[in-house]
Amino acid sequence: MTSTAATAATPAGTLVPALTGVVPPVCTPLTPDFEVDVTSLLRLVDFQLAGGVDGLFVLGSSSEVAFLPDAHRAVVVDRVLRHVAGQVPVLVGAIDMTTLRVLDHARRAARAGCSGIVVTAPFYTRTHPAEIELHLRRVAEQCEAPLYAYDLPVSVHSNLDHDMLLRLAAEGLLAGLKDSTGDDAGLRDLIVARDDAGLTGFSVLTGSELTVDNALRMGADGVVPGLGNVDPHGYAALHAHARAGDWEQAGREQERLLRLMRIVRAAPASRMGRGSSALGAFKTALRLRGVIEHAVTAPPQIPLDDTETDYVRRILIAAGLL
């Protein structure tokens, strides 16, 4: 999953290979009493590895990071890193409201031996662009692991400034970006600006799992697909087609995954939030596929009912996954 030609620098000055390929944000299986289901978590990790992924991202949005207590986060980091044991890079989300809280998570993940830290802009408080840059600088300078920015405007209510990102990359403070803006034109502009600046070691990963073929054709380095939890093999195949320049096959695989993604519509908006429906659908699909034991989501998310579960089952059958 790495390029030998492109490298990025850590704050300590060490060059690391640029991150490429399929890096799913791993769901966090829970028991009925809301503890981390470690057995299911490690089975899910093995399912991802068998699916041909190039890396793993724990404690991201699809991991329900915003819902998990610190003790749950620690269990996930410790057990996954120990289990993977260097087979693929493991990124850890150090996602929290302010710099000091993020640094607590980041330092612990770095000590545990992660391959990189992922952070958003601060949230809850109103944050000025200068404060966002200061936040990223301080985390990068004080954490001995490559830092990846996470552009998630739906949650932090602001986009990351591209000039700022490339400035930090040029200084060796940022190793890459997960772009979940859904703005394909903005993504292309960033890729062109990165290439014009010669910052090819700065990895640009799309979080828009339904337009991956387009992003890869524009020059994105990889994808962080929530749906990759359910079908890692599909995203690995899509990436392989793109790497081979077979854009017709890549497009066909993307369209198959688009149809599979309809599982996130399982519940009506009148009954629960979009996040409850999507994360509930991912976990329900994983339970139906025999990967995890329970489809429990962290409160206050609302679980899928029997009718909604049957909706997910029918889509999995149509996709050939059951």
Automatic annotation (TrEMBL):
Q: What is its EC number?
A: 4.3.3.7
InterPro entries referenced in this protein's UniProt entry, alphabetically: Aldolase_TIM, DapA-like, Schiff_base-form_aldolases_AS
Which Pfam families does UniProt cross-reference here?
A: DHDPS
Q: Name one GO biological process term.
A: small molecule metabolic process
Record CDD domains:
DHDPS-like (cd00408)
What GO MF annotations does this protein's record show? 4-hydroxy-tetrahydrodipicolinate synthase activity
Q: Give the record's family classification.
A: Belongs to the DapA family.
UniProt name for this protein: 4-hydroxy-tetrahydrodipicolinate synthase
Q: Which organism is it from?
A: Actinoplanes octamycinicus
* Top-level taxonomy: Bacteria, Bacillati, Actinomycetota, Actinomycetes, Micromonosporales
